Amino acid sequence: MPRSLLLLTALLPLLSSCATTGNPNQGGLFGWSPAKADQRLSDREQRLDQLDRENAYLRSRSRSLEDTADARQRQLEATR
Description:
Structural class: mainly alpha
Number of helices: 3
Shape: rod-shaped
Low-confidence stretches: none
Distance between the termini: 102 Å
Mean pLDDT: 83
Strand content: under 5%
Largest sheet: none
Radius of gyration: 29 Å
Order of helices and strands: HHH
């Protein structure tokens, strides 16, 4: 009995100090959490959606600026 209690006492800090992560590459066999992995995936998908929206806006803005530049170039050529 005292031997198992000693072993448990020695292992308890090791077990309680294990942090879980949502990244299975970092968490190892027992140190990762499927729930955290799902949350991590959801966060990354939301960030990707945000970046896609920003990219679409910037493409649209770029086309608009190019159209404006083309129109001004045509006006300049017409005045010569």
